[in-house]
Write a structure and sequence with these properties.
It comes from Mycobacterium kansasii. This is Putative sigma-70 region 4 type 2. There is one protein chain. The protein is built from 6 helices and 5 strands; from the N terminus they run βαββαβααβαα. With about 160 residues, the protein is an alpha+beta fold. The protein has one domain. Strand 2 and strand 3 form a beta hairpin. About 15% of the residues have low confidence.
């Protein structure tokens, strides 16, 4: 999972936003292969054993830290090449996924994608379900992004 706190420089209290995000990342660490954490600036990364677990973690971070859709997340299906946990290796080993995620961050400007905050990518021909997963994520993000504050509170529980 790769995420970015979008617009944090414009936040009324950027420090509080980062604290909420850090707390949310700690809350979704259970079951992760590599616990999610901030890497550089507003970006965070973590690894999960399944696509579903990564997508669930991304949604939980979004709701806990910035419920009004101020984060974007990407999940990738590439194999990890290193088990080290240092920042440098973490960033390097996910470089390809990070580049794909950065390219996706420009995508929400396209018509129909303003509310989309999550995407899934996998190496070419590695999986046959990438389009289906992304279709579900687009629908989910659009529905969640369309909710008013009261409805968001109900969904969050």
């Amino acid at each position: 999972m790769i995420g970015d706190v979008v617009g944090s420089r414009r936040a009324a209290d950027r420090s509080a936003l980062h604290r909420r995000t850090a707390t949310a990342l700690q809350q979704v660490a259970d079951g992760s292969i590599d616990a999610p954490a901030f890497t550089v600036g507003d970006e965070f990364q973590g690894s999960y054993p399944t696509v579903g677990a990564a997508i669930d973690a991304a949604m939980r971070v979004r709701f806990a830290a910035h419920p009004r859709s101020t984060s974007v997340s990407g999940s990738g299906g590439a194999r990890l090449r290193s088990s080290t946990r240092t920042l440098g290796s973490r960033t390097a080993r996910r470089g390809g996924s990070a580049r794909r995620h950065q390219a996706y961050r420009r995508h929400p400007a396209a018509p129909g994608f303003a509310l989309v905050r999550t995407t899934f990518r996998a190496p070419d021909n590695a999986r046959s379900d990438v389009a289906a997963v992304n279709a579900a994520l687009i629908c989910r993000d659009h529905l969640l992004g369309s909710l008013d504050e009261r409805s968001l509170r109900i969904v969050r529980g």
